Amino acid sequence: MSQTLFERIASKEIPASIVYEDERVVAFRDIGPQAPVHVLIVPRKPIPRIGLAGEEDRDLLGHLLLKAAEVARLCGLEENGYRVVINNGRDGGESVPHLHCHILGGRPLVWPPG
Question: Which residues are catalytically annotated?
Answer without folding.
Answer: 100
